[in-house]
Write a structure and sequence with these properties.
The protein contains three helices and seven strands. It is of the alpha+beta class and 156 residues long.
C-alpha cells in the first residue's frame, strides 16, 4: 500500500443563528456555502456543529408543511407538558444556574436529531441532493440568543 501525503487546510467560522420560536427550523445553507467559498478549499468536507445541547443540525427539505410535520413529530416524541426529571429543580443539583428553565423535552428532542452534519466538498461545491438544505433546529423556547454554530472546512 502506498501512502500519499497531502497538506490539508482547516478554516473555522462561527455563525450566530437566531430563532423565533421552538421548534424552529432555520435554514443556514447559504451561510455554510458562503463559508466554504471563503475558505478557498476545493475538495474535502465541511462540518456544521451546534455548540448547544438544545439546538440541533439536520439536513432536510425546506418545504413549509414538511417542517410543520417535523415539528409535530418532535412534539409527539418528547411532549413539552410531561414530567422530566431534568425539570425537577427541587431534586436536581447539577448544571443549575439562576435563569434555569424547564427544558427536559428540548434535550430529549435533540437526542433524536443530533449535533452536527458532515458534507463533502467536491470541486468547490457541496453536492446536495435536489431538495437538501442545512437547518439549525431550535428546540428550547427559553434559549439564550443567538445560537453559536461552528462551520469547519477541511481539505485542499
Amino acid at each position: 500500500m502506498k501512502v500519499r501525503e497531502t497538506n490539508l487546510a482547516t478554516v473555522t467560522f462561527e455563525l450566530d443563528v437566531y430563532a423565533e420560536t421552538e421548534p424552529d427550523f432555520v435554514d443556514i445553507t447559504d451561510r455554510v456555502v458562503d463559508a466554504v467559498n471563503q475558505s478557498g478549499i476545493n475538495n474535502g468536507f465541511v462540518i456544521v456543529f451546534s455548540k448547544h445541547t438544545t439546538a440541533a443540525i439536520i439536513i432536510q427539505e425546506h418545504e413549509p408543511l414538511l417542517l410543520e410535520d417535523l415539528g409535530n413529530t418532535l412534539e409527539r416524541i418528547a411532549p413539552k407538558n410531561v414530567d422530566y426529571r431534568h425539570n425537577d429543580f427541587n431534586v436536581r443539583t447539577v448544571h443549575m444556574h439562576e435563569d434555569e428553565c424547564p427544558n427536559g423535552h428540548s434535550h430529549c428532542r435533540h437526542m433524536m436529531l443530533g449535533t452536527s452534519e458532515n458534507i463533502p466538498i467536491i470541486d468547490g461545491a457541496l453536492p446536495f441532493g435536489k431538495w437538501q438544505r442545512i437547518f439549525m433546529v431550535e428546540l428550547d423556547q427559553e434559549a439564550e440568543q443567538p445560537r453559536k454554530i461552528l462551520v469547519q472546512v477541511v481539505g485542499a
